[in-house]
Specification:
Length: 310
Amino acid sequence: LAETTLADAPVIPVSAFTGQGLDQLSIALLSLGERARDRDGHPRLAVDRAFLLTGAGLIVTGTLGSGRIAVDDRLVLSPSGVDLRVRGLHAQNRPAGEAFSGQRVALNIVGPRLEKAAVNRGDWVLHPDLHAPTDQLDARIRLIRALPYPGRPDHPVHVHLGAAHVMARMMSLQVGRLEPGPAALVRLTLAHPIGALAMDRIVLRDAGATHTIGGGVLIDPFPPKRGRRSPERLAGLAAREAPDVVAALRAVLDLPPGWIEAPAFMLARNIPSSAAGAVLAAANAPEMGGLAISRPTLDRLGAAVIEVLT
């Protein structure tokens, strides 16, 4: 862990057999404080297990990464797109009427086309508005190990995101080779589509899956096919990196052309339509024809229209 952010983390010897260190471990974990959770976004549960339970039917378990899920909610299994309904749930191993972001959850799900064979580890159970599988990701990553073939333009890697595990080709978006140490922007082209959103964390392993070689943060889950290395595109990715959604939107709109497709941006950040208006207002970005546009750009275009008409 010497080359990772866990280099200075405390090391606490524990034993499940004797109980040694468990109290100290509990104290250390509680001292970290409560982690901020996204409870305002759409629900999004990363499925890590599915099984049939006698008398109940199909059960999926996973970690609820955002939002809340309640009994009778109608959701979607992604990336397959199968509709489902929550018949019952357990949160933190207890029966409950609803579950919240950050909890371990077991869902009893039903649906007209739903069967155990349709559910795979790495799938998502999520709000229908978030169902947008993608096979290309732009991310900022940091390597902790050298790549085996540094001269190659693309590198085969294993990508882990949520509970998903998929092979991908990794290509640098910047000049120079991908080296351990400094963070770099990359394009990941996946072997098959998965569910992914901006600010998701990813872990990278080598082609043989024997070593963890790095990791990072997903910036854009729906990148353009063309111009991936253009200066404008790189500036746009840097602007999108702000963790705060309003700050990110402002930064993007400060760049040419001064507008962006609002639905795609809100989807990538898991902003429900009910909250999108507040984000646009905070960024001083009116929406016109599906575009979020900066106020200075709008004023400039308005003045140009009046001049032409005059």
